[in-house]
Design goal:
single chain, alpha/beta, Arc Repressor Mutant, subunit A, Nucleotidyltransferase, domain 5, 3 domains, 5-stranded mixed β-sheet, 14 helices, globular, disordered C terminus
Length: 407
């Protein structure tokens, strides 16, 4: 617990970079107000960032009678990171600046079940890295749907992709000769939310993703809760229905087997709403057009999700629940069942917990993976281990090239 105050300070440092990247130069006083940080702490934080070569002092702002404020801006060469989203049928890439802004993105077909999947992924990633800009590359973050033993090792188990003990991190580190940090994709999204999103204002929150799978990222006191083997947050495998549908994990009646994308499509076909070869887009389109049965399918899914999340809220007591994922494109239909089921299932003292539903783009997964690298220089918990230290060394080398050459 001794590390928690430092972890919060570290998040503030990342938030300063994100604020300046999104809104341009600002004074220390402006940053303190925008980020809800005391002026004294802001002075210390910006002093550290200046000494690390991540910020630079610019001209004074116009005076309005008092002492002119010195403006701060980002060092344009402070570095960049690459984020990778890996799923069963494709890979998404983003190249982001030190502030988290996406400057380049791509998506490529990928077969996670192929015998050559590791070599295929390495080749795709190598090609994307080669097309990058001139700013120093600090490292690569990889988000996967499954359990990851440790961010530095990147040993992956994923029922969604049929992977068992896949040495993803060590393989990519060796083949690319770059720092590579691997994490569960929803945990990566939670880190991105803490740095740049709604979670910036909260230290205890729950990120829930709906779509192909159902997952959760749990932020406790500003730190992602990973569990003993990196598998915390597998809410999609909460048993919901006795003798229910077969899940990809091999069990029956898991939450994901009832409200995941495949389950909704199966219901849509079975009830005659969509054709045998149609998918989730057709089901959503039918609901958007007012088809009562399509609307009912989403509403029923929302009801099950609401009751299940109420139990998780009782267990974790988050300040806010943030709903993300490709499934949110149909949230207007999910919400009919979700809101009443969620609120009525909560004990009175928890019924006021906020729920934020964010708009979704596919590259958001990859941006979350890039946040693994961008958070590493300020990682008081040292979750990234040796890979985190390599990222920090690269940051120091580019900020102080003469010192790096003489080392």
């Amino acid at each position: 617990m001794a590390n928690r105050p430092q972890a919060r300070t570290d998040v503030n440092r990342s938030a300063i970079l994100a604020r300046l990247g999104a809104h341009g130069p600002a004074s220390r006083a402006d940053l303190a107000r925008a980020l809800n940080v005391s002026p004294a702490l802001m002075t210390q934080l910006t002093k550290d960032l200046l000494s690390e070569g991540l910020l630079r002092e610019l001209e004074h702002s116009p005076s309005q009678g008092g002492r002119p404020a010195r403006m701060l801006g980002l060092m344009s060469t402070a570095g960049r990171a690459i984020g990778v989203k890996v799923v069963a049928d494709h890979v998404a890439f983003v190249d982001v600046g030190i502030d988290g802004t996406v400057v380049r993105s791509a998506s490529e077909p990928f077969d996670a079940s192929a015998s050559t999947f590791l070599a295929d992924l390495t080749g795709l990633l190598r090609r994307f890295v080669a097309g990058g800009g001139s700013a120093p590359l600090l490292g690569v973050g990889v988000g996967v749907p499954g359990s990851v033993d440790r961010q530095a090792n990147g040993l992956v188990d994923s029922t969604q992709m049929g992977w068992r003990q896949v040495p993803l991190g060590s393989t990519l580190q060796r083949e690319l000769n770059l720092p590579v940090i691997v994490e569960n994709n929803v945990n990566a999204l939670a880190i991105a939310e803490r740095l740049y999103g709604v979670g910036r204002l909260h230290e205890n929150f729950l990120v829930v993703t709906i779509g192909t799978g159902i997952g959760a990222g749990i932020m406790v006191d500003g730190v992602v809760l990973r569990g003993s083997g990196g598998g915390a947050g597998e809410v999609g495998h909460i048993p919901v229905e006795v003798d229910g549908p077969l899940c990809t994990c091999g069990n029956h009646g898991c939450l994901e087997s009832i409200i995941g994308e495949a389950a909704l499509v199966r219901l849509g076909r079975g009830r005659g709403v969509i054709g045998e070869h149609s998918g989730i887009a057709a089901l959503r389109g039918a609901a958007d057009s007012g088809n009562a049965e399509a609307t009912r399918i989403f509403s029923e899914a929302g009801h099950v999700l609401g009751r299940t999340l109420a139990g998780i809220v009782h267990t974790l007591d988050p300040e806010i629940v943030i709903v993300l994922g490709e499934g949110t494109a149909a949230w207007s239909h999910w919400s009919f069942g979700f809101e009443p089921a969620f609120r009525s299932s909560l004990i009175p003292s928890r019924r006021g917990v906020a729920v934020a539903v964010e708009t979704w783009q596919d590259e958001s997964w990859a941006q979350g993976a890039a946040a693994l690298v961008l958070a590493t220089p300020f990682d008081a918990e040292d979750m990234a281990g040796d890979q985190g230290r390599l990222v920090r060394e690269r940051l120091v080398e580019q900020a102080f090239p003469q010192a790096g050459a003489g080392a």
